[in-house]
């Protein structure tokens, strides 16, 4: 295939549509919704890229993937080279190709998006990453680096930790990841449902790290099993990426009733513990006809779509602003709607109404209207007097966010924290303790997979510099 | 993998299991727990660390096998192994020398009480331990606790051992007598028992600590499943507890949340029992 197209010819190609499972079918199972591009679709989409000089897309990517280069290789049907470029910049391309909010990052800055549709960079990344997983023999072998004799402990096996581990191993440092849960991936495994990110993808990405010599120890809780001072004495450097932590409570009446879940508990039961997925799973989960999910982010979308798949007849998103302000990815909102999820906008919960025997019976709500913008730049919702109403619900899921987990920081008194309990780190991720770096949600509060990965990548570069001093 | 080095039956459905877990054995303090998962696909279960031997690198767990998952855990033979044991989790017990303390244990709660009594004894407290159960078959660790306590009082509901009645009987007598009234009370056991103890010590203003056992998934604060109302605040038992001021705990709320999966559990039990019955019938 040729990539010698004129700009005019490139401009004439229309943006690809990702093949998806039909909504009525997929809303009953956990199969991946997006089916991936065909080879023809992938190459044609890659040829839409104008290979412009400005490379805005790269500037929009928190890990700085060499986007024009990998797309150019794909457009020329040179998949080994495309994979090589991608792997060089991104430790988890198959994950990013699935869960990154491309429409607000790389694709938002694509020149083609100014007039018409941006290049589907995310779909192409996924295509190349999946090809690489299926064709290990086609890849140029990564040469084992010369060992530096230095060791690094990484706390947390989520996106920031995995990224940092990959980068550091590539520099020849001996890396050990400590994970508190019994399996790898952090939020990628317990938080993101399989219909968005199959577990097999995580397993394969983690396997690549293992082949690079990274050791992963599960069931080790830093702050409890071992402390930061202990790690600091045993390793030459430490990277803390232990995630966000505690669910933020709603502080409304009835939030401890039976049938009220924090998003992480609901998702963990299903994703990590396989509840409701197999008849013989030993972890129970409640299944009800009416499920109300409070919040408008990706976590809320994951909860509501999971509830639908577990059999909810009415699966509802309750959000206090309007759809325009929702932080969830556009694609997740679209998929949720197709799957029959109801969006109840400009509505805030004010109490959870119990049955006589302590179960949830309804979510008491109040209608809102949007006032002037607040500190977050979004228009502040204001209650409309006398607009209270009860939304019948057998399960209520709180997906409004998380706050810093004190478990690690409580046993590391030298670590400077901000007023929210997050670790204070400089631009390169270095904390108040020399040789101890931090990144991801424990530094920035609840954010996205790709921002955490960006932190991991930056911190790894800084750690490498620190170790070579 | 965590190897099982001993597994003995202390009472009906109650096992004492010793596991190889060197890091946990070194790090643990009284009052802390571990999250245990037998194998791939199984549930994560919180279990109190009953004791530890840092030199041998072992921890001791007391496990009441009442649910499908705990039954499978106690079925692990010596030499076998448990896939996941994570900890120690939770805050350690605040131990000080109060002088006279009462330690009250009911059923399997007695096992949870054991590390507390040990730590309190080491801190020089004068301990009266009151333990109870439905019958003599459910009274555990009497010798071990007796050795650490100034007084050991036993109650059983059927009178088959010690005095007939509940643990609250002897505790009430202690509180009523100014010469024996405890400065602090530790109570671990079924929720109604802890609630009753809290109600007895509230009026005289005796500091009372209970160890709670809510439903828990990850044990590190991430999921929020173990929340309990303590005073005016919602607390997470895994990171803020598991021990709390008994006078502030909403025991009714805790008790209610513990029944969340009763229906689902019953269905799973039925499935397991059915299989066993079928095997026997063959």
Describe this structure as you would to a colleague:
The complex is a heterodimer of chains A (469) and B (282). Chain A has 469 residues and is of the alpha/beta class. Chain A folds into three domains: 132 residues, Orthogonal Bundle (Fumarate Reductase Iron-sulfur Protein, Chain B, domain 2), CATH 1.10.1060; 160 residues, FAD/NAD(P)-binding domain (3-Layer(bba) Sandwich); 154 residues, FAD/NAD(P)-binding domain (3-Layer(bba) Sandwich), CATH 3.50.50. Chain A is 34% helix and 16% strand. Chain A has 18 helices and 16 strands. Chain A is globular and about 65 Å long. Chain B has 282 residues and is α/β, with parallel strands linked by helices. Chain B folds into two domains: 88 residues, Beta Barrel (Elongation Factor Tu (Ef-tu), domain 3), CATH 2.40.30; 160 residues, Nucleotide-binding domain of ferredoxin-NADP reductase (FNR) module (Rossmann fold, 3-Layer(aba) Sandwich). Chain B is built from nine helices and 16 strands. A seven-stranded antiparallel β-sheet of chain B has the order 6-1-2-5-4-3-7. A seven-stranded mixed β-sheet of chain B has the order 11-10-9-8-12-13-16, sandwiched between helices. A two-stranded antiparallel sheet of chain B has the order 14-15. In chain B, helix 5 packs parallel to helix 6 and helix 6 packs antiparallel against helix 8. The longest helix of chain B is centred in the last third of the chain and has 20 residues. The two termini of chain B are 35 Å apart. In chain B, 51% of the residues are buried. The mean pLDDT of chain B is 90. The interface between A and B is large, with 42 and 41 residues.
């Amino acid at each position: 295939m040729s990539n010698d197209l004129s700009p005019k010819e490139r401009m004439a190609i229309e943006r690809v549509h990702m093949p998806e499972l039909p909504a009525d079918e997929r809303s009953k199972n956990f199969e991946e919704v997006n089916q991936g591009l065909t080879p023809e679709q992938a190459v044609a989409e890659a040829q839409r890229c104008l290979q412009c000089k400005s490379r805005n897309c790269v500037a929009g990517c928190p890990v700085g993937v060499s986007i024009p280069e990998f797309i150019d290789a794909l457009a020329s049907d040179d998949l080994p080279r495309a994979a090589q470029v991608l792997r060089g910049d991104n430790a988890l391309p198959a994950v990013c190709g699935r869960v990154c909010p491309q429409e607000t990052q790389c694709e938002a800055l694509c020149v083609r998006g100014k007039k018409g549709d941006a290049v589907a960079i995310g779909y192409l990344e996924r295509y190349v990453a999946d090809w690489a997983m299926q064709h290990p023999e086609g890849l140029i072998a990564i040469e084992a680096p010369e060992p530096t004799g230095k060791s690094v402990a990484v706390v947390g096996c989520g996106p920031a930790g995995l990224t940092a581990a990959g980068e550091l191993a590539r520099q020849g440092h001996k890396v050990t990841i400590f994970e508190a849960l019994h399996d790898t991936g952090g939020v990628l495994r317990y938080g993101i449902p399989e219909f968005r990110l199959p577990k097999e993808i995580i397993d394969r990405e983690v396997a690549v790290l293992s082949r690079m010599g990274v050791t992963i120890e599960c069931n080790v809780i830093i702050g409890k099993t071992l402390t930061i001072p202990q790690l600091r004495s045993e390793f030459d450097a430490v990277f803390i990426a232990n995630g966000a932590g505690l669910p933020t409570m709603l502080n409304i009446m009835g939030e401890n009733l039976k049938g009220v879940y924090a998003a992480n508990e609901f998702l963990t039961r299903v994703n990590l513990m396989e509840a409701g997925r197999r008849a013989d799973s030993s972890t129970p989960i409640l299944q009800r006809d009416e499920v109300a999910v409070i919040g408008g982010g990706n976590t809320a979308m994951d909860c509501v779509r999971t509830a639908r798949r577990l059999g909810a007849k009415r699966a509802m998103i309750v959000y206090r602003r309007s759809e325009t302000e929702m932080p969830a990815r556009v694609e997740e909102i679209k998929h949720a709607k197709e799957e029959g999820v109801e969006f109840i906008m400009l509505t805030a919960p004010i109490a959870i109404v119990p049955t006589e025997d302590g179960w949830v019976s309804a979510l008491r709500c109040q209608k809102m209207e949007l006032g002037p913008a607040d500190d977050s730049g979004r228009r502040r919702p204001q209650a409309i007097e006398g607009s209270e109403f009860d939304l019948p619900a057998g399960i209520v899921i709180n997906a409004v966010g998380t706050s810093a987990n004190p478990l690690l920081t409580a046993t590391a008194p030298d670590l400077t924290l901000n007023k929210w309990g997050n670790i204070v780190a400089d631009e390169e991720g270095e904390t108040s303790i020399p040789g101890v770096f931090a990144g991801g949600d424990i530094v920035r509060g609840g954010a996205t997979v790709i921002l955490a990965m960006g932190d991991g990548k930056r911190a790894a570069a800084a750690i490498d510099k620190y170790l070579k001093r | 993998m965590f190897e099982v080095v001993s597994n003995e039956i202390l009472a009906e459905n109650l096992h004492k299991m010793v596991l190889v877990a060197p890091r946990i054995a070194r790090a643990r303090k009284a009052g802390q727990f571990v999250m245990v998962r037998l194998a791939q696909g199984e549930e994560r279960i919180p279990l109190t660390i009953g004791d530890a031997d840092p030199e041998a690198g072992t921890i001791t767990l007391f496990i009441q096998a009442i649910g499908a998952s705990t039954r499978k855990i106690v079925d692990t033979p010596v030499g076998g192994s448990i896939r996941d044991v994570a900890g120690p989790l939770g805050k350690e017990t605040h131990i000080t020398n109060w002088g006279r303390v009462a330690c009250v244990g009911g059923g399997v709660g007695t096992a949870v009480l054991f590390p507390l009594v040990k730590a309190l004894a080491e801190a020089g407290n004068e301990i009266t331990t009151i333990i109870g159960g439905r019958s003599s078959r459910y009274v555990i660790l009497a010798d071990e606790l007796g050795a650490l306590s100034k007084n050991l009082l036993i109650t059983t509901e059927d009178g088959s051992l010690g005095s007939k009645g509940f643990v609250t009987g002897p505790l009430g007598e202690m509180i009523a007598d100014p010469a024996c009234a405890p400065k602090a009370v530790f109570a671990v056991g079924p929720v109604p028992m802890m609630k009753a103890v809290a109600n007895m010590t509230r009026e005289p203003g005796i500091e009372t600590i209970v160890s709670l056992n809510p439903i828990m998934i990850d044990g590190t604060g991430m999921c929020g499943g173990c929340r309990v109302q303590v005073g005016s605040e919602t607390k997470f038992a895994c990171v803020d507890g598991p021990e709390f001021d008994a006078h502030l705990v909403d025991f009714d709320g805790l008790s209610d949340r513990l029944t969340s999966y009763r229906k689902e559990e019953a269905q799973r039990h039925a499935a397991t029992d059915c299989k066993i019955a079928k095997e026997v019938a063959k």
